[in-house]
Amino acid sequence: MFAATPRTASAALTAALAAAVLTLPAPASAAARSCLLGKWKLTGYTLDAKGPGSYATGRGGQGTVLTVTGKSVTYDFDGARKLVVKGRSDGEKYELRTTYRKRLTLKSTLKGAKKGTLALKAKSAKGSAGATVVRNGAPVISYNLAQSVYRQGEWEPVAPLRSSYTCTARTARLRMTHTDESGTGTIVVTYRRL
């Protein structure tokens, strides 16, 4: 047997360290990335609501572009179709046609990978997005979404504050159900990835 020289001792130490590193447990993998992240185009929208003596159905909004990051969402309404809501309230039928334009950005919280929840922070709303409403053919009101709606703690049917979602690499579906004293409404929005 020969005595270890500094060089062979160093080589032995290096080999031992390499073996130790190879046997260390792997670090825990990071949480799975949500497939909702990215840019989407609205392809389908339904709103259905019922309450005592009232109902409403909504369709439209195709062309709205939604961009989802890990911390915010942006709705780009330029080029989007009108959102048309038809219904009956207090014995009277009505039709509301709402045109949305420009951009709305809100901070958000996203949880889940292929399914989960998307929650928007209403008070963080900013942007020049606006809405113009026509009721039964007559103009009613125009307003800024960030200032007049979201920062007041309210929300618009095109951008609910909290939705559950499912998604794949190419499609996404957001769903929100809301119940209050006026009844229960469900919104389902489908998107195609851009």
Report the sheet-strand fraction.
over 45%
- Structural class of the helices, strands and pairings? mainly beta
| N-end to C-end Cα span | 70 Å
Helix content: 10-25%
- Kindly report the spatial arrangement of strands forming the biggest sheet: 1-3-4-7-8-11-12-13
Give the total of beta strands. Answer: 13
Mean pLDDT: 88
Helix and strand sequence: HEEEEEEEEEEHEEE
Short summary of the structure?
The chain is mainly beta and 194 residues long. The protein has helices at residues 6-23, 145-148, and strands at 38-51, 54-60, 65-68, 72-76, 83-89, 92-101, 103-112, 115-120, 130-135, 138-144, 162-167, 171-180, 183-193. A hairpin with a 3-residue loop joins strand 3 and strand 4 (72-76).
What does the model show?
- A hairpin with a 2-residue loop joins strand 12 (171-180) and strand 13 (183-193).
- The N and C termini lie far apart (70 Å).
- Mean pLDDT is 88; it is low at 1-29.
- The chain contains two helices and 13 strands, in the order αββββββββββαβββ.
- An eight-stranded antiparallel β-barrel has the order 1-3-4-7-8-11-12-13.
- With 194 residues, the chain is mainly beta.
- The protein is globular, with a radius of gyration of 26 Å.
- Residues 1-30 form the signal peptide.
- It comes from Actinocorallia libanotica.
- Keywords: Signal.
